[in-house]
Queue: 2 jobs
Job 1
Amino acid sequence: MTLPAGAATYNPVAPKVNCPWLFIAGTEDRKTPMADSAAAVRAARPRQRRQLLAVKCDHLGAMEVLTENAYGDAYVRA
């Protein structure tokens, strides 16, 4: 993921987050490589729920791809 320079201080917070995380990554995204999102999912502790949803799109195209009848309706089902 492309993060700000101070992002190194974010890591101590991640282990404390207990709600599920859903990473939506575009397979054609050059700004936020899917490998980075996959690494964040793999880094989860056993009790943390993290999931990666790969979508064939670029950086900001997921909502368009995940729209069938209404904006983002397929995203909700994913």
Note: The radius of gyration is 14 Å.
Job 2
Amino acid sequence: MRYVVAYTVRYEMNTLVSFLVSFQAVEFMRQGKSPTEAASLALRKIAKYYPKYIGGLVVVNKDGEFGWFRLICCPYLY
């Protein structure tokens, strides 16, 4: 089974890499999660340790279904 994962970064690429979010998203999809659920679960692990983190994850499975999730530190960004 093939999966495709991409991620968007604003400032903190090292955080995404250190948490292996793309790997985690693929593993969540292997467990039967949808692309949106996989993105959410992968990024929430970062939020647990870095509550002010800003970033997003786009996940696409082999059938072309896609999902995304983003983390924003505050509701109003200027």
Note: DSSP finds three helices and three strands in the chain.
